[in-house]
Amino acid sequence: MTDKLVRATASNGDIRIIAAITTELVNEGVKLHNCAPTAAAVLGRMLTAGSLMGATLKSEKDALTLQMSGGGEARGVVVTSYADASVKGYIGNPSVDLPANSKGKLDVGGAIGKNGNLVIIRDMGLREPYVGQVPIYTGEIGDDLAYYFTVSEQTPSAVGLGVLVDTDLSVKAAGGFIIQMMPGANELAADLVTYRLQEIPSVTEMITKGMTIEEILNYIFEGMDLKIHDSMIPAYKCDCSREKVERAFISIGQKDLEELYNEGKEEELKCHFCNKAYKFTHEQIGEIIKSVTADK
Ligand SMILES: [Zn+2]
């Protein structure tokens, strides 16, 4: 097990850091959804971002959802994460595979497109979830999140996300970090971090070299009073159940349910997040209709 997420501070607590290696987690998501290389990078970066942000949630009942849909061939990507840094997600088009971009990298921004929004939904068990959104800035995901934190939450941030896809389509390395300046942070420290982030190799390069997440942070924040506070194991986890799928099935409405029943067919519903199939036989559809009408 190499995946690990850590929460840390630097520069006397002026800088807040969440960073993780997510290679196994991303591999699992990419395999589940049978992703082509560009799709793997899109989904992998989103899963990593979701896991990092999930780790900032206060209660285990809270959920955080990130959505990006920019009109590109990826046809949208969604991830949902929780306070234990677990995450699940899906991409509209897992087959999307574009030529490398001008930097020779998997073209995540091109696959997502720029014609749309980054939407962040924080569900804290209140009547209404908190929804924030910003227009997509580059579609590279890390830049977009940094833009969101800076503009919507007035927290200057740097976000790095990386997924390295191997020739056999497995994920060789994945990980990322969110670095945030607390209000009133020392400007020199902010400048120093900005400078170091420009100088360091990419996250995936450091992970491929075998560096642990602690070593990566020690390297970026050398001499800056880095303090690692705690760690978690991020993981791909789907919490779907027959009950939840049944609830979604019922939500199509009584009229449509009756139509399906009268056609005498059975229905198979797949969980978007893990592709698990749930079958409803003709008789079961009849029972669902009965229970819905009985509720009224
Ligand atoms: Zn599922």
Query: What composes the largest sheet?
Result: 6 strands, mixed
CATH 4th-level superfamily of the largest domain: Hsp33 domain
Distance linking N and C termini: 50 Å
How would you state the average pLDDT, rounded? 94
Low-confidence stretches: none
The coarse overall form would be elongated
The helix content is: 25-40%
Strand order of the largest sheet: 7-6-3-4-5-11
- Annotated CATH architecture of the largest domain: 3-Layer(bab) Sandwich
Number of β-strand runs: 13
Q: Compute the gyration radius: what is it? A: 21 Å
Instruction: Estimate nothing, just give the exact number of structural domains.
Output: 2
Strand-and-helix sequence, N→C?
A: EEHHEEEHEEHEEHHHEEHHEEH
Helical/strand content category: alpha+beta
CATH topology heading of the largest domain: Hsp33 domain
CATH class of the largest domain: Alpha Beta
How many DSSP helices?
10
**Approximately how much beta-strand content do the residues carry?**
25-35%
What ligands does this structure carry?
zinc ion
